[in-house]
Amino acid sequence: MSVTISLTDDISACRTLRRIVFIDEQGVSEADEIDDLDDSCLHLLAIDGNIPVGTARIHIAKGLAKIGRVCVLKSHRGTGLGAALIRKALDVSRGKAAQAKLGAQTHALGFYEALGFVATGPVYDDAGIPHRDMLRDL
Fold it and tell me: Where does the N-acetyltransferase domain lie (predicted)?
């Protein structure tokens, strides 16, 4: 696998990946997936050859880098790509924020803990999926 991850302006490719994973696979409504933050976020796109296979976005405000909309196509899950996306998001955020925050689906808490995040606060519902906020110093 020769996947590259970089900042991108191709929000359309990122949204296509998010549609496949969040709307089609996980049943998240389009109203919950599409918001008005894309234009104010940094976007990461993972490309395998010339095919988009993963994405994440970073919203930086008030010293906090909120990492979200992290997804990887089924074909590339289990390869370490999700962790690579998070590490790249952390690298991009350093110097722009003091902490990184994300809302993790509860089944993925261990994945994010292995990347240095600590769960905070109670479990909450986001688009019908249980989540928990997590923080990590940058």
Answer: 1-138
